[in-house]
Write a structure and sequence with these properties.
The structure holds 2 protein chains of 2 kinds.
Chain A (H helix, E strand, L loop, with lengths): L5 E7 L3 E7 L5 E8 L5 H18 L17 E7 L2 H8 L6 E8 L13 H7 E8 L14 H11 L5 E6 L7 H14 L3 E4 L8 H13 L1 H17 L5 E5 L5 E3 H6 L7 H14 L4 E6 L4 E7 L2 E2 L7 E2 L2 E2 L8 E3 L5 E10 L5 E9 L4 H4 L10 H7 L15 H22 L6 E6 L13 E5 L7 H8 L2 E10 L4 H19 L8 E9 L7 E10 L13
Parallel strand pairs in A: 1-4, 4-9, 5-6, 5-7, 7-8, 11-19, 19-20
Antiparallel strand pairs in A: 1-2, 2-3, 9-10, 11-12, 12-13, 12-16, 14-15, 17-18, 21-23, 22-23
Helix pairs in contact in A: 1-7, 4-5, 9-13, 11-12
Chain B lengths: L1 E3 L2 H14 L7 H15 L3 E3 L9 E9 L1 H4 L8 H13 L3 E6 L9 H9 L3 E2 L1 E2 L12 H4 L7 E4 L5 E4 L4 H14 L3 E5 L3 E2 H8 L1 E2 L1 H14 L4 H9 L2 E16 L2 E10 L7 E7 L1 E7 L2 E5 L3 E6 L16 E7 L8 H7 L13 H8 L1
Parallel strand pairs in B: 2-5, 3-4
Antiparallel strand pairs in B: 1-2, 3-9, 3-10, 6-11, 7-8, 7-9, 12-13, 12-18, 13-14, 14-15, 15-16, 17-18
Classes of the chains: A alpha/beta, B alpha+beta.
Chain lengths: 549, 361
């Protein structure tokens, strides 16, 4: 296992793919931004080539005062990838595996069958068949009904040869996974080594959402290994074989082998990376973060060093899951947002005659924006016209000055509204502006005490991936034993810590970063759902999969 | 009046049930999915008016008793209602003509129509509350003096318990214990009654139609959905703002707590506190009561206009709190003794929301 030295962070966004190389003291050695490609892999390879090339050419010193190290790139020991490939695969119904769906819970739950809410085309692509067998767990840990092993075996006989993986969801698996584990053994016996997704490892209480996430996870298994091997090959082409991690929804990392087993957990990593990157670049633990990209702006909240999570489960391609994602207000404003005059229309801010987007020129900004000699007025032109940025040739924006300034005022109003909507308390807060488009953000905004623009703001997402910590999580129902409430909270905290260490965190740095308890109503026996998350720095003592090329 | 509950009607009904649930009654989304699958499998359930049924026809009030958290995990199989009916008919020697939700609020407003549809029975355009309440005797049938017996409970496995309780309070106590043994929730019927009794005030009438109208208004509102909701319900917006504090604790199986909403926009500077016991019970501002049980208090997402169940209210949410008048039966002396502020342990007398709104307008 290599000792932590240089780290490579890669973030695949909707418009651009960013890559950075950080040294051991977290200094940015090189950064690169390339257009994201439809296949995702192409963008990753290009970003990697570029950032490694820059790093070689720059021959930067490892320490600020140290001597230049031309071979610095060979010191990359860890690679962290945040990607949208899983989301895209679901949205585009591409490369998805066929999944045999087993729910354990009959005779309960028959009123809503598996995948009932799924769009028909997605079900057609993903489902190799579904069954609901007898079994499952009660909230207090008893058997709901005896587990029907034969029914599982019979179903597997029907789908054998027609499925790439199996998704298994038992009622109240978050209380006890024992029926899911039994079913997994039967799958192994009947089908051999196929991918198996177990709901207790993926989601929390809420049968349908957890089942959906579990099926999606099994469907994404192939996509995850594709991207992982593409990254591995790209790294191997540069004679690199770092330990590889994937960024996940909560802004923390999981080891490659985890990511291959739980690909669905990577689905919301982009915004989380940006917020964590903003925290790292500024040293702040509590602030607002605006990540302005080419097409849209995410405004999130940094609380105690992590993104605040939303209370609602997230929909992925129209499928409801119960993952928690960063709590964001997203508006369709970015550096590439097209500005047009629309006479007679009044914007929410009252700015007449100007329309912002939602179209964006995206990565073609440097060809199409006015200041770069193009013919499309964009918000980047507005930023130049208002003196917020000096880019291209400002004189080219002159003819559209009135429109561009009006657009800028309208964008500021929309941004101020987004900031106000995401805030949880009165009072002005610090705003950290990151992302390639953050030049749009003015120095003064209502509700904002100061705007911080850190160095490397344009690569905050990739940096966020590179510096991310490793986490472990628990979300299940606990019954108060002799030790009462405190014993249950302690047990949950310890489990979360153990998971974090197993995922690669240094035990000495692991801390509980979130602890939430939700009492169960209408029950006379004391039971509570506890959600605990622990996180720690990447350690040396972990079990992680290394690339051998 | 007869109406077949098609998919658009069911979707509107689910939104309306959430609003009338005043934060409780269970997540209507599962109720909606159960109803949609039943619609697909057996066709639409018929919604009938009490006037369309013979006077001596029997109505079975029913619903789930237990923990909402159990309901989102151990989903019903849809056949629970048939088991209740079979045993009720055997016990009484009479035939059930239609089902009725004991409470229209939340998931419990939707389940009986699924059960009814799967048996080919209609559901009546009425319920026992016009909202959601935590306790079994907090129903209009209790106020009208209907006998809660026999109570029947079942689970998805077909276990059946028959209750003969000396009072509604005992029915509550016994069924609650049975629900725990059933695995945290069970399907139940009590307060069986005739159509004549239901027409004479033992049921809150027209609540399906109201819930569907509420859902339709929220679905079709252009721009200000709160205004549309106020127009349909005659309700009173209390505050529009942001949740700035949530506190919950469990005592004796009930979640109690409070929520603070800080006003925004026109309401900037205002602080509203909601007292919660599974449902939203009291709205206070600077010690003054703005609305209280048995009137309805619902917290809606300011953007989507979806009602937010109490267990999902979270710090930072943008919300609008609206109060609506309860069914008149709750404003009687017995109604207030059963479900007024003092019944929930608050030391003040009930004042109707429209008077409070007038007093502070």
């Amino acid at each position: 296992m290599p000792t932590l030295d240089y780290r490579l962070g890669v973030d695949v966004g909707g418009t651009n793919t960013d890559a950075v190389i950080l040294d051991r003291s977290d200094q940015v050695l090189a950064k690169a931004k390339v257009p994201t490609t439809p296949d995702v892999t192409g963008g990753i390879v290009a970003a990697l080539d570029k950032v490694i090339g820059m790093s070689r050419a720059a021959a930067v010193p490892a320490r600020k005062d140290g001597p230049p190290e031309p071979r610095a790139v060979s010191r990359i020991t860890h690679a962290m990838l945040g990607t949208t490939h899983a989301t895209n695969a679901v949205l585009e119904r591409r490369k998805l595996h066929r999944v045999a769906v087993i729910r354990i819970g009959a005779p309960a739950t028959l009123g809503v069958r598996p995948m009932f809410e799924w769009p028909a085309d997605l079900t057609g692509v993903v489902s190799a068949g579904a069954t609901v067998v007898a079994g499952g767990i009660e909230f207090d840990g008893r058997d709901l009904s005896p587990f029907d092993e034969d029914a599982v075996a019979r179903f597997l006989g029907l789908v054998a040869g027609r499925c790439d993986g199996v998704a298994i969801t038992s009622v109240f698996a978050p209380v006890s996974p024992r029926h899911e584990l039994l079913a997994a053994e039967i799958v192994k016996r009947e089908l051999g080594e196929v991918h198996v997704s177990l709901s207790h490892e993926i989601g929390s209480v809420g049968l349908l959402e957890r089942e959906n996430a579990t099926i999606l996870n099994a469907a994404l298994a192939g996509v995850a290994s594709d991207v992982a091997s593409a990254l591995g090959q790209a790294l191997a082409a540069h004679n690199l074989s770092p330990v590889t991690f994937f960024a996940q929804n909560d802004g923390t990392l999981m080891a490659l082998d985890h990511a291959l087993r739980y690909p669905v957990l990577t689905i919301g990593s982009g915004p989380a990376n940006s917020i964590r990157g903003a925290a790292f670049l500024t040293g702040r633990t509590d602030a607002l973060v605006a990540d302005v990209g080419g097409t849209s702006t995410d405004v999130g909240v940094l609380v105690n060093g992590f993104p605040r999570e939303s209370s609602q489960g997230v929909e992925i391609g129209g499928i409801r899951t119960n993952f928690r994602m960063p709590d964001l207000v997203t508006i369709a404003l970015g550096g590439g947002t097209v500005v047009s005059g629309a006479l007679g229309q009044t914007l929410p801010g009252g700015e007449r005659g100007v329309r912002l987007g939602p179209e964006s020129v995206g990565y073609r900004l440097r060809d199409e924006a006015l200041v770069f000699g193009g013919s499309t007025p964009t918000l980047t032109d507005s930023a130049v016209a208002t003196g917020r940025a000096s880019l291209g040739d400002p004189s080219l924006a002159q003819p559209a000055l009135r429109l561009l300034k009006a657009a800028s005022r309208a964008a500021d109003l929309a941004l101020a509204d987004a900031i106000d909507r995401v805030k949880t308390a009165k009072g002005d807060l610090t705003l950290i502006a990151v992302g390639g488009g953050s030049i749009l953000i003015p120095d003064e905004l209502p509700g904002v005490s100061e705007v911080i623009r850190p160095d490397h703001f344009d690569a905050a997402n990739a940096i966020g991936a590179a510096i991310a910590s490793v986490s472990g999580q628990v979300d299940r129902i606990f019954h108060f034993g002799p030790g009462g409430r405190k014993a249950a909270l302690d047990e949950a905290s310890q489990e979360a810590r153990d998971h974090a260490v197993a995922a690669g965190a240094d035990p000495d740095t692991v801390q509980i970063v979130e602890l939430e308890e939700i009492p169960l109503a209408y029950l006379t026996s004391p039971a509570v759902r506890i959600r605990a998350k622990a996180a720690g720095a990447l350690g040396g003592l972990y079990e992680a999969t290394n690339y051998s090329g | 009046m007869k109406r077949l509950l098609d998919e658009p009607a069911l979707r509107s009904l689910a939104r309306g049930c959430a609003v009338l649930g005043t934060g409780g009654g269970g997540d209507p989304r599962i109720g909606l999915l159960l109803a949609l699958q039943a619609l697909e499998e057996v066709g639409p359930t018929e919604l009938v008016d009490l006037d369309d049924l013979p006077r001596d026809a029997l109505i079975m009030p029913c619903g789930m008793v237990g923990a909402p958290t159990v309901h989102i995990e151990k989903i019903e199989n849809g056949g629970e209602g048939a088991v209740l009916r079979e045993h009720l008919e055997r016990l009484t020697g009479r035939t059930v003509a239609a089902l009725m939700p004991a409470e229209i609020g939340g998931s419990n407003g939707l389940l009986p129509l699924t059960w009814a549809g799967r048996m080919g029975l209609p559901v009546v355009d009425a319920d026992g509350m016009g909202r959601a309440f935590p306790l079994i005797p907090q129903v209009s049938m209790h106020l009208a003096g209907i006998d809660p017996n026999p109570g029947v409970m079942t689970d998805e496995r077909g276990n059946v318990v028959v209750f003969r309780a000396i009072s509604g309070a005992w029915m509550e106590r016994l069924e609650r214990s049975a629900a725990v043994e059933f695995g945290g929730a069970g399907a139940a019927t009590e307060y069986i009654m005739t159509v004549a009794q239901a027409r004479d005030g033992a049921a809150v009438r027209g609540t399906f139609t109201l819930a569907i109208k509420i859902g339709d208004a929220l679905n079709t509102a252009v721009g200000d959905s709160m205004a549309a909701l106020v127009a349909v319900t005659g309700g009173f917006p209390l505050v529009t703002g942001k949740v700035t504090d949530v506190e919950r604790r469990t005592t004796k199986g009930f979640v109690r707590g409070s929520v603070v909403v800080e006003g925004l926009g026109d309401d900037a500077g205002r602080l509203l506190r909601l007292e919660i016991q599974n449902e939203n019970l009291v709205a206070l501002e600077q010690g003054r009561v703005l609305a209280s049980v048995p009137d309805l208090i619902t917290v809606l997402d300011s953007e989507t206009a979806d009602a937010i169940p109490t267990e999902r209210v979270r710090y930072g949410q943008r919300v609008t709190v609206i109060a609506m008048q309860c069914a008149p039966i709750w404003r009687s002396q017995f109604g207030l003794e059963t479900a007024g502020p003092r019944a929930f342990g608050y030391d003040f007398d009930y004042v109707p929301v429209e008077e409070l709104a007038g007093a502070y307008a």
